[in-house]
Amino acid sequence: MNTIIKIITISSVLLFASLANAQEFQGEATYKSKTKIDIKLDSTQMGSGIADQMMEMLKKQFEKTYILNFNKSESIYKEEDALAAPNPQGMDMVMVMSGGSDVLYKNIKEKRYTNQNESFSKVFLIKDELKEIEWSLGSETKNIGDYTCFKATTTREVEDIESGISFNGDKDLSTDEAPKMKEITITAWYTPQIPVSVGPGNYHGLPGLILEVNDGSETVICSKIVINPKNAVNIVEPDNGKEVSQEAYDKIMEKKMKEMEERFRPSNGRDGGESIEIRIGG
Asked: Under a CB-based contact definition with an 8 Å cutoff, are residues 61 and 85 in contact?
């Protein structure tokens, strides 16, 4: 009996080793994201029912589905096509946010990434080096689907931006002051059963596929995995768009955001109507 158990254990190890070494090895993982929104809407500043419509729109805006196609050294991560939620009638809603990508290509072997992103009606091709993430590996485990996952954590500094809402410019959500920073803890769960060093979004660098990530405000969790799918997607680095570095892109977006905020201020002579600006911080 003990001999049989040893044989089965060894066979399992060899199976996963063969997956890692096979040239044709490829996988597809589906992720669901949810973002915690701590915003109180004052119905006295809106028409009847508008507050409910806005909260429903925000809920859909921050619940998304992504597909990660990966092999031993490369991956493509993009949002699954979905219909955008309509704006409440009579309202111009400007979502002032940061981050996100249309097509994110990562090459783990060469330690670089290409992010094809359409922003303000222009396509950018952001190319830069993959930053090494200093993960702390823990011994805690949990199951996600059929996979045993191990816990890993890291920290990073982000701008300490308060979430806010501006009704017709009654609050100035922009500031010229140097941003305050705060440290957040990111918790990831990875499975060595799928021996690739990739994960959703910008996360990578663990000894197994990352199936869940939580940064305190957003949770991204894998809901489905297919190893060597019959209709495998060809992982190709995107090449369409204006090529820029991450730093250059961030500066362009900062300038565009300020221009957009100025354009939607009521003092610019717009006739009637209401405008709502929503900024999600963190």
From this structure: yes
Model confidence over 204-248: pLDDT tens digits? 999 999 999 999 889 999 999 999 998 888 999 999 999 999 999
Three-state secondary structure string covering 78-90: EECCCCCCCCCCC
For residues 91 and 275, the answer to whether their CB atoms sit within 8 Å is: yes
Query: Which neighbouring-strand residues pair with 123?
Result: 118
Rama region for 208: left / alpha / beta (φ>0; ψ in -120 to 50; rest): left
Residue 111 has pLDDT above 90, yes or no: yes
Q: What whole-number distance in Å separates Cα of residue 175 and Cα of residue 177?
A: 5
Structure tokens at 195: 């021996």
Two structure tokens written together for 166: 């501006």
Q: How far apart are CA 78 and CA 62, in angstroms?
A: 15
Per-residue 3-state assignment (H helix, E strand, C coil) for 179-226: CCEEEEEEEEEEECCCCCCECCCCCECCCCEEEEEECCCEEEEEEEEE
Buried b (16+ CB within 10 A) or exposed e, 199-213: bbbbbbbbebbbbbb
Rounded to two decimals, the pTM is: 0.76
Question: Computed over its alpha carbons, how large is the radius of gyration of the chain?
Answer: 22
Q: Of how many residues is the chain composed?
A: 282
For residue 154, the cross-strand partners are: 186
Residue 147 has pLDDT above 60, yes or no: yes
